[in-house]
Amino acid sequence: MTITATTDAAMEASQPTPTTSTQETVQAPRTGRPARRAFTAEYKRRIVAEYEQAPSGQKGRVLRREGLYDSSVKQWRAQIEAGTLGTVSKRRPRAGQSPEQARIAELEKQISKLESDAARKDKVIADRDAALEVMGKGVAFLEALSKKNKG
Asked: How far is Cα 44 from Cα 86, in angstroms, rounded to an integer?
């Protein structure tokens, strides 16, 4: 065991150290999917300038090195030309329900549930009525048979 340990230590010392860490990483909730990247306005301007200055055969190299698509660079270029790069877009807030609207929605849901329960119970009652009618006819038939046999 000590021979193996010293041999492993000697092998590790002779091999170049890897540039990446061998420590375990904590898995994100979306395992297997790349994390969405956010780019600063400065980075976008620098990449667009570098992309535009690159000779026609070297533009793809810039994209591969940075892990980008040409559509992203085109979009950033359009934003720079429009003067909207770096500005925060104003998204419309989600329309919330007023307390009255929430109450109406709750009551409509409750009405729907009660109507479906009533329809289900009406079907059960109709089935029982049909069964009672069949049983009544059966009893009447048996009574008729017993009268016929007696008389």
From this structure: 9
